[in-house]
Amino acid sequence: MPLKVVIIGSGVAGLATAAILRKKANVTILERSTEERIAGGQGVGLGPNATKILDSMGYDRVQSHAVTSKGFKAYDVSNGNLVKKIPMDVVGEYGADWLMTLRKDFRAELLRLATEHDESTRPTLRYNCKVENIDVHEGAVTLQGGEVLSADVIVVASGIHTDLKEKIVGNDRFKATPTGQTIFRFLVSASNATKVVGKLPEWWDPKEGGYLSIMRTDDGTNRALITYPCCDFKYVNFSCAFPNHYLKSSAGESWFTDGNLDEVLEIFKDFPAPYADFMKHAEEIKVWELRDHDPLPTYVQGRAVLIGDAAHAMAPFQGQGGAQALEDAEGLRILIENNISRGDIPEALKRWDKARRPRASQVQENTRQASRKLNEVDSMKNMAYNWTYDGIFEALKDLET
């Protein structure tokens, strides 16, 4: 009999898990939000550790309009001039590309992988479906209204603020708390950019190739602007980071919270043209108070497992939130290998935890270090660790040796 898997959450972690497990398991996905709300968002970077997994799943880069990054560029905040260019042979060093894409296109492709093709293995996806409780040992999921679903495996992929975490960890000491920084995120279209400057700047020009560009203040105000092209160079994603005290309005606790253009322009008014001019054409401004939590003592309990932001919430400074969610999902392949039965699940999840938790916890620490303005050598060292991963079976093999 195929295993019954209930996945709580249809973000990156949940959909990727469904796409991987559906081949040999009966999968149900429960999403508390509407389809329109969960599909929103701006840009997302996918390092080679993520891209390896996506390629193995049949991810269509063309369909998701992904831009391949060629490296980093740093700019002088006083005049906007290029200070340093770091081209990278990402495929040669890490075995896969570094991609930059729109979050909605990324999720749409994961949704396709999770729900299209063979109807006999298609998961059941239920929106507006709130989970009230889980029994981690019996494998029971209780929904709002009293309906109870039985499961061999419960995958909690319901995000940073999930109230199910303590069911697995055993206490509520690991709630996400503010890091002290906030980010405005928005898109600027190529058509609007050309209206401002006549032609695209070199850091946007498709002929130059895709680069992640960084501009940081050096006056102690700890503000930064990170940009990268996405959607076949039709848009550039802007991430404007700054200490919380600059913000006059409330950022809320969700990356769906609407931001205020006037505040963007005020906080970054001393940044050079054309950046400030581009900001005036921002689309879908979101403001996100960054939060994380300390590494958890376990991601598993009985038949339940935490993955994605529910397990290892981190700030976006090394672009690893989505990548670690994909690593979690890929790791759960161990549940559909070697004819694992219902009785084997708790031990299989412990093996997964032994491989995944130390690595994801280190990536959390690397991200915290990045928020403190590491020097270039240490930043690249941490990035190399983050980007070097060959999947769950290699990780388990390393543990055994």
Fold and architecture overview:
The chain has two domains: 3-62 and 103-175 and 293-400, FAD/NAD(P)-binding domain; 178-292, D-Amino Acid Oxidase, Chain A, domain 2. It is built from 14 helices and 18 strands. It has helices spanning 12-21, 35-38, 48-57, 90-94, 103-115, 165-169, 190-197, 261-267, 275-279, 309-312, 321-331, 345-370, 376-387, 392-400; strands at residues 3-8, 25-30, 43-46, 67-75, 82-87, 99-102, 124-126, 131-135, 140-143, 148-150, 153-156, 177-189, 210-216, 224-230, 235-243, 283-292, 300-301, 304-306. A hairpin with a 2-residue loop joins strand 17 and strand 18. 46% of the residues are buried.
Could you describe the largest sheet, including whether it forms a barrel? 9 strands, mixed
Second CATH tier, the architecture of the largest domain: 3-Layer(bba) Sandwich
User: How many structural domains does the protein architecture include?
Assistant: 2
What is the terminal-to-terminal distance? 33 Å
CATH superfamily heading of the largest domain? FAD/NAD(P)-binding domain
* CATH topology heading of the largest domain: FAD/NAD(P)-binding domain
Measured by DSSP, the beta-strand proportion falls in 25-35%
Structural class: alpha/beta
Q: Give the CATH level 1 class of the largest domain.
A: Alpha Beta
Q: Round the mean pLDDT to the nearest integer and report it.
A: 92
Any idea what the radius of gyration is?
21 Å
- Count of helical stretches: 14
Percent range of helical residues: 25-40%
Shape, please?
globular
Q: List low-confidence stretches.
A: none
Tally the beta strands.
Answer: 18
Q: What is the oligomeric state here?
A: single chain
